């Protein structure tokens, strides 16, 4: 699914109005009807009172229509027009007479007391907000946020105060429980700095013209079922174990053999034909016992990996390196040699990335189209700090282009930058996965997918999706709290079935 900028969304509205064709006030009616429908579906059993705050633009226009529709449905509704500007938009103005009970807010003192527990609808600003909200309108936003404990706040299209594709910093902004966003995710929703602003994002289809959506060029995308289904390749009925490649996992050190076990096991469950784990000697029995399906190659050194470059053969379809290997000088030396001699795309994670941040010239030795999977701290060590998360996204995308690598920046919506500069966000996954070892599993999955012949881009998008989906399926059964990395591996099979049957 594409992520459009505010300006592209305006163009999509205009294109739809001209080519469907539909009058703009009817497009507003259609969008608002989707919101009202969601509200009836969500709160309709025993409807609470609704308090609707409308702005002067088209977002406010949506609010006016929602107020009318909910009232017609028999809900208890009060609505206010927040006069942040002297002029209302045409469609806002057209809808005001259809809601005669409309009340007015001209200053902070007009803010009503809203007693009974209910739903506060925020339709003050949408994608038209061009600068941070100031003055008494900012005060209204704070007053609405003060209601959070007692009321459910639902924002229409955007939480008011947030801008679709610009940082809002510490500017006043509604903290919604739900955001009903029209047709597309907005870039701002993908960033952790806005996590407590948009709340749970619900995408509502409002029938914007498909021709516009197909032809519009955008760098940002959210991975969805359609993309994943296009990537998925069923296995060949005549396959043998050689068909799906031989991968090498270089991982683990004394005290961190779990990282190696998790990566090797995930690599197998992702579908690799053969897996060899390269580990220090201290891990031999652990690995052979925990992952009997994997072959094992050990170092002369007892506790760390130092000579893996000597055993690497071109016959390995790919390599996954990094989880738990430590950052000792001897390991760093071996990594440098490995990067100089192995030419196929590989997966680099964790300590492999930490070593590279200490010796940045190694970045240029990584085989093109390899996948790097830093978490935010590792990313900062590799590429430096940024002012805000929009700037960090730009840095991510420009580094992927400059180095011709795929870089996955981990998070709630992991951001995956491609060598052509495009960035895909992965929507699957949950906070239960914020526990030790989840990243080691991801390394194994990505390696397993590369190994069996998926292109690096396909492996990246499908791998992140499967990883998060397995986590979601596990959390559904055993809770987010008790989820551990091993569960992600155990539910990978169900995630595969889900992808196959979609
Ligand atoms: N036909 C369309 O264009 C449709 C638009 N829709 C709605 O329209 C919204 C966009 O509407 P608009 O473009 O009118 O914009 P908004 O309603 O988001 O806000 C624009 C209003 O806010 C004012 N404003 C902007 N920045 C401000 C600031 N910092 N402080 C105070 N006032 C400020 C502007 O002067 C204008 O009055 C979408 O988010 C969506 O809710 C939907 O109804 C779908 C159809
Ligand atoms: N709140 C969350 N929502 C979705 N995914 C998450 C969340 N927290 C963590 N994850 C995922 O779990 C993985 C954690 O990786 P990482 O921090 O490297 O863990 P570790 O180093 O312990 O293995 C990442 O893929 C990340 O996207
Ligand atoms: K809003």
TrEMBL record:
<comment type="subunit">
    <text>Homotetramer.</text>
</comment>
<comment type="similarity">
    <text>Belongs to the NnrD/CARKD family.</text>
</comment>
<comment type="function">
    <text>Catalyzes the epimerization of the S- and R-forms of NAD(P)HX, a damaged form of NAD(P)H that is a result of enzymatic or heat-dependent hydration. This is a prerequisite for the S-specific NAD(P)H-hydrate dehydratase to allow the repair of both epimers of NAD(P)HX.</text>
</comment>
<dbReference type="GO" id="GO:0046496">
    <property type="term" value="P:nicotinamide nucleotide metabolic process"/>
</dbReference>
<dbReference type="InterPro" id="IPR036652">
    <property type="entry name" value="YjeF_N_dom_sf"/>
</dbReference>
<keyword id="KW-0520">NAD</keyword>
<feature type="binding site">
    <location>
        <begin position="58"/>
        <end position="62"/>
    </location>
    <ligand>
        <name>(6S)-NADPHX</name>
    </ligand>
</feature>
<dbReference type="GO" id="GO:0052855">
    <property type="term" value="F:ADP-dependent NAD(P)H-hydrate dehydratase activity"/>
</dbReference>
<keyword id="KW-0456">Lyase</keyword>
<dbReference type="InterPro" id="IPR000631">
    <property type="entry name" value="CARKD"/>
</dbReference>
<feature type="binding site">
    <location>
        <position position="157"/>
    </location>
    <ligand>
        <name>(6S)-NADPHX</name>
    </ligand>
</feature>
<dbReference type="Pfam" id="PF01256">
    <property type="entry name" value="Carb_kinase"/>
</dbReference>
<feature type="binding site">
    <location>
        <begin position="126"/>
        <end position="132"/>
    </location>
    <ligand>
        <name>(6S)-NADPHX</name>
    </ligand>
</feature>
<keyword id="KW-0521">NADP</keyword>
<comment type="similarity">
    <text>In the C-terminal section; belongs to the NnrD/CARKD family.</text>
</comment>
<feature type="binding site">
    <location>
        <position position="160"/>
    </location>
    <ligand>
        <name>K(+)</name>
    </ligand>
</feature>
<protein>
    <recommendedName>
        <fullName>Bifunctional NAD(P)H-hydrate repair enzyme</fullName>
        <ecNumber>4.2.1.136</ecNumber>
        <ecNumber>5.1.99.6</ecNumber>
    </recommendedName>
</protein>
<dbReference type="Pfam" id="PF03853">
    <property type="entry name" value="YjeF_N"/>
</dbReference>
<feature type="binding site">
    <location>
        <position position="59"/>
    </location>
    <ligand>
        <name>K(+)</name>
    </ligand>
</feature>
<keyword id="KW-0479">Metal-binding</keyword>
<dbReference type="InterPro" id="IPR004443">
    <property type="entry name" value="YjeF_N_dom"/>
</dbReference>
<feature type="binding site">
    <location>
        <begin position="410"/>
        <end position="414"/>
    </location>
    <ligand>
        <name>AMP</name>
    </ligand>
</feature>
<dbReference type="GO" id="GO:0046872">
    <property type="term" value="F:metal ion binding"/>
</dbReference>
<feature type="binding site">
    <location>
        <position position="375"/>
    </location>
    <ligand>
        <name>(6S)-NADPHX</name>
    </ligand>
</feature>
<feature type="domain" description="YjeF C-terminal">
    <location>
        <begin position="224"/>
        <end position="499"/>
    </location>
</feature>
<keyword id="KW-0630">Potassium</keyword>
<keyword id="KW-0067">ATP-binding</keyword>
<feature type="domain" description="YjeF N-terminal">
    <location>
        <begin position="9"/>
        <end position="214"/>
    </location>
</feature>
<feature type="binding site">
    <location>
        <position position="259"/>
    </location>
    <ligand>
        <name>(6S)-NADPHX</name>
    </ligand>
</feature>
<keyword id="KW-0413">Isomerase</keyword>
<feature type="binding site">
    <location>
        <position position="439"/>
    </location>
    <ligand>
        <name>AMP</name>
    </ligand>
</feature>
<dbReference type="InterPro" id="IPR030677">
    <property type="entry name" value="Nnr"/>
</dbReference>
<keyword id="KW-0511">Multifunctional enzyme</keyword>
<dbReference type="InterPro" id="IPR029056">
    <property type="entry name" value="Ribokinase-like"/>
</dbReference>
<feature type="binding site">
    <location>
        <position position="440"/>
    </location>
    <ligand>
        <name>(6S)-NADPHX</name>
    </ligand>
</feature>
<comment type="function">
    <text>Bifunctional enzyme that catalyzes the epimerization of the S- and R-forms of NAD(P)HX and the dehydration of the S-form of NAD(P)HX at the expense of ADP, which is converted to AMP. This allows the repair of both epimers of NAD(P)HX, a damaged form of NAD(P)H that is a result of enzymatic or heat-dependent hydration.</text>
</comment>
<dbReference type="GO" id="GO:0052856">
    <property type="term" value="F:NAD(P)HX epimerase activity"/>
</dbReference>
<keyword id="KW-0547">Nucleotide-binding</keyword>
<feature type="binding site">
    <location>
        <position position="122"/>
    </location>
    <ligand>
        <name>K(+)</name>
    </ligand>
</feature>
<dbReference type="GO" id="GO:0110051">
    <property type="term" value="P:metabolite repair"/>
</dbReference>
<dbReference type="InterPro" id="IPR017953">
    <property type="entry name" value="Carbohydrate_kinase_pred_CS"/>
</dbReference>
<feature type="binding site">
    <location>
        <position position="324"/>
    </location>
    <ligand>
        <name>(6S)-NADPHX</name>
    </ligand>
</feature>
């Amino acid at each position: 699914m594409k992520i459009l900028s505010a300006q592209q969304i305006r163009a999509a509205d205009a294109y739809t109005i001209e080519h469907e064709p539909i009058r703009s006030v009817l497009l507003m009616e259609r969008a608002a009807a989707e919101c009202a429908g969601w509200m009836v579906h969500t709160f309709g059993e025993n409807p609470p009172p609704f308090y609707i705050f409308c702005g002067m633009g088209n977002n406010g226009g949506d609010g006016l229509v929602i107020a009318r529709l909910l009232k017609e449905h028999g809900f208890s509704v009060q609505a206010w027009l927040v006069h942040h500007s002297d002029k209302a938009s045409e469609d806002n103005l057209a809808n005001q007479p259809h809601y005669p009970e409309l009340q007015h807010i001209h200053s902070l003192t007009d803010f009503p007391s809203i007693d009974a527990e209910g739903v506060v609808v925020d339709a003050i600003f949408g994608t038209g907000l061009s600068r941070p909200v100031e003055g008494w309108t900012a005060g209204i936003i704070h007053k609405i946020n003060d209601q959070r404990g007692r009321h459910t706040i639902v924002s229409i299209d955007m939480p008011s105060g947030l801008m679709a594709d610009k940082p809002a910093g510490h500017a006043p902004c509604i903290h919604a429980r739900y955001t009903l966003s029209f047709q597309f995710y907005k870039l701002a929703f993908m960033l952790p700095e806005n996590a407590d602003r948009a709340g749970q994002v619900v995408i509502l289809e409002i029938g914007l013209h498909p021709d516009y959506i197909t032809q519009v060029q955008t760098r940002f995308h959210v991975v969805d079922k359609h993309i994943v289904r296009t990537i998925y390749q069923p296995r060949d009925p005549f396959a043998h174990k050689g068909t799906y490649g031989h991968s090498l996992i270089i991982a683990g050190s004394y005290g961190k053999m779990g990282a190696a076990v998790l990566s090797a096991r995930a690599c197998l469950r992702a579908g690799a034909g053969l897996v060899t784990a390269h580990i220090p000697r201290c891990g031999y029995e652990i690995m052979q016992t925990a992952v009997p399906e994997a072959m094992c190659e050990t170092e002369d050194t007892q506790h760390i990996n130092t000579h893996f470059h000597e055993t690497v053969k071109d016959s390995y379809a790919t390599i996954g390196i990094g989880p738990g290997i430590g950052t000792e000088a001897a390991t760093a030396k071996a990594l440098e040699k490995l990067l100089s001699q192995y030419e196929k795309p590989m997966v680099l994670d964790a300590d492999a990335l930490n070593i590279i941040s200490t010796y940045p010239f190694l970045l240029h030795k990584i085989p093109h189209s390899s996948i790097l999977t830093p978490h935010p701290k590792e990313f900062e060590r590799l590429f430096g700090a940024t002012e805000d998360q929009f700037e960090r996204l730009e840095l991510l995308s420009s580094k992927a282009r400059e180095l011709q690598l795929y870089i996955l920046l981990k998070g709630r919506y992991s951001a995956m930058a491609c060598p052509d500069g495009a960035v895909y966000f992965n929507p699957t996954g949950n906070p239960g996965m914020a526990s030790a070892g989840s990243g080691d599993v991801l390394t194994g999955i990505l390696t397993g997918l590369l190994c069996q012949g998926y292109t690096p881009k396909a492996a990246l998008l499908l791998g992140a999706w499967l990883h998060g989906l397995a986590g979601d399926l596990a959390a559904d059964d055993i809770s987010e709290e008790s989820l551990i990395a091993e569960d992600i591996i155990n539910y990978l099979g169900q995630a595969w079935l889900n992808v196959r049957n979609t």
